[in-house]
Amino acid sequence: CESYLLITQFVESRSQFKSGLVNHAFASALRTLLLDYQAMVAQLEHQFRLRKLSVQGLWFYCQPMIGSMQALSIVIRKASSNNFIGSAVLNLLQSQAKAMAGDHVVRSLLEKMSQCASQAYLGILERWVYEGVIDDPYGEFFIAENKSLQKESLTRDYDTKYWQKRYSLKDDIPSFLANAAETILTTGKYLNVMRECGHSIQVPVSENSKLTTVGSNHRYLECIKAAYDFASGELLNLIKEKYDLMGKLRSIKHYLLLDQGDFLVHFMDISREELMKKPDEISVEKLQSLLDLALRSTAAVADPCHEDLTCCVERTTLMKRLSTLKDLQTSQTVTSSSDIEEPISITGLETFSLSFKVRWPLSLVISRKALTKYQLIFRFLFHCKNVNRQLCAAWQLHQGLRRVDMQGIAISVSSLLCRDMLKFINSLLHYLTFEVLEPNWHVMHSRLQTAKSIDEVIQHHDFFLEKCLRECLLLSPVLLKKLEKMKSICLQYAAAAQWLISYSSDTTNSDSPNLEKYKQLKLRTPSQKLKVTSENAQVIESILKFEREFSGELESLGPILSSSSRAEPYLTHLAQWLLGVGRD
């Protein structure tokens, strides 16, 4: 009959090498059916020759087979016309079986064909969820491997999609595995990570838990879930215990989030001359040797990860760098990076950063993107620390003048301004460290302790960095620009303070005041005193100019914080700290 010829032709064409494992298995099942059909025809012919076959008997024996052959011919026509392979063949068989729900015999046949055809597919699936290996010579499996993405890209490329795209789901997923597709993908990924680490691991499999023998859909899901739980637990234990993820994160917190500042103080003291140069003139090798010296001279030497700390010098300011990272979700519309004004001259103090050597598999969590976010926070903190140091030096100069009873009007005005600036930068540093970084770190730490998979670890870590960036104002361009302006005024004042004060008191440029010269001030003639008074007035005017600029910027900060705090509640804490500056 026509159906028989169609099935025979399909079997011959789909038995070819290029047709894929599922089609091979399906053709094999069809070949068995054809043998049964041929045996039935032979038996009927024998009965006919013995004159024992009536028309009614012929119809009785042929009717079940004719219905089955017709149903299979429908499947075969669809599979041939669309050139189906792999998952598409299995889905076609299952959908056709459901459509024949009223015919128990045909439905049972189609379900049997589907089960036979799926055996080869389940063999591929079994290797993936139990070994993390894709053994798919014909590209039939619903998981694709992108071999162009290498694990090394995690430490080099900011925009790498290794973890998301190295293994990914195709559109054509078998319907009986659709609900477990993500679990299947993740299970194999976890096993693959352990193989990449040289950690030989295989999910323990009993004869009853082999996917090719379980026999029903709910049992597939049970076996897959058991494999997932095993792979997830093993990988998480490997990363936490053998590779000490928490120890590495604590080291990064010590150095890049300035949790332990003793090494930084020493480093800033010995590297100041080099950091005062332009970025292009700085020797990174010299900075690295100075950093190593600072680490060896402080408590940081006890940290086993301190040797992974490295120096780097960027070529742009923090604002410019932030504008180039398009994936960061800023709270206000940001202009393009070409529209951001760069200072005429920048030094290493504005562009210096630290980096950390991270190796596989920790690079899954601490990727290039994550390290870049740590560096953005570090650069902001480092510059704030530098402003604080410069203002402290100016404050010490004022205190030195007080000790020798040189508290003129210029000194008093400058002292008040220096105090307000110090209070501002200290309040900002307190907010960043104690209101943002520390609380968020403790939240992340507790979440990592209870994480059930490496994906949860990555999610909690990324959320921590995103929250810190936002609450440190690095994703608020308007506020950040305002704070950068205020820090710039503080630095200009600190640089000018020593000259202004020395000029007003007619001192030398030495750090310690000359007592004899101060005593001679009382012996000046009236004309000399008049000249000093005029000079002091000029100095006072210069100091007042700094005071007006600083106060103006501080006052303009208030409305911005008030309006933004409705959408960003954390800004209320910042406003409480900063807007109290100068009120007392």
List the SSEs and their pairings.
Layout: H1 2-14, H2 21-49, H3 55-82, H4 87-99, H5 104-131, E1 143-145, H6 162-165, E2 167-169, H7 181-196, H8 217-242, H9 245-256, H10 262-275, H11 284-296, E3 309-313, H12 318-324, H13 348-351, E4 352-356, H14 368-403, H15 409-450, H16 454-471, H17 477-505, H18 515-520, H19 526-564, H20 571-578
Antiparallel strand pairs: 1-2, 3-4
Helix pairs in contact: 1-2, 1-3, 2-5, 3-4, 3-5, 4-5, 5-7, 7-8, 10-11, 14-15, 14-16, 14-17, 15-16, 15-17, 15-19, 15-20, 17-19, 19-20
Characterization of the model:
With 584 residues, the chain is mainly alpha-helical. The protein has helices at residues 2-14, 21-49, 55-82, 87-99, 104-131, 162-165, 181-196, 217-242, 245-256, 262-275, 284-296, 318-324, 348-351, 368-403, 409-450, 454-471, 477-505, 515-520, 526-564, 571-578; strands spanning 143-145, 167-169, 309-313, 352-356. The longest helix has 42 residues, at 409-450. The radius of gyration is 38 Å and the shape is elongated. Mean pLDDT is 83; it is low at 333-339 and 507-532.
